[in-house]
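Entry type: protein chain
Record version: 2
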Amino acid sequence: MRFPAVGLLALAITSTVCARAEAQDADTALPIGPFVVDVRGTFPKFTNEPLLADSRGLSVGELPGLGLGLDVNAHVYLFTWRAMTFGLGGQLTLARAHATPPGAAGQGTGRPVTERLTSLAPQFSFNFGTGDGWSYISGGIGPSVWSVVPDGQDPLPGDTQRLETINYGGGARWFAKPHVAFTFDVRFYAIAPSAPHPPLPSGPRTTMLIMGAGISLK
């Protein structure tokens, strides 16, 4: 799948931050960690693939698309090797989108649909910088539940199935105060296909982009 250009641009910015961080004077810098908790508001880009619509008995125009969400992440930092600090933690992602296609209320040409993603996974991270601010790349594997349900209808089996999901991405944190930072994160979620529900086909294997920003506490 072709990744959105905005996501690639954000990851390129993160890589630039990493390169600058490596040039800092390690003798005077504070170490990364020992732990951090992130709370971020997010903008999930739900897919509008025809295969997804077919798996739920919908039209492409009924899929909601862009939504809102919340991301909570906690990390502890284990050890440092040269310019890199290794971290271990977990991440909870909640995302939701709702849309009513034009004409749904009047002419009945479309149905209002709610789409949700809930994902929980451990994460391993590579961190670059100092305790005053650092960038990172990270990833993990865990279960997700991805539902696409017309309002007033019961979920199909594919809407409640736990799907193996690989998440990977990067971001940065800048501490304006000793214990409070601004943080952003750009992350891709590679979601396994759901089982078929005859006569409907299985849900597609897809990659979803979620971008977020918020605060970090340490």
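Comment: The domain at 5-92+100-178+189-217 is CATH 2.40.160 (Porin).
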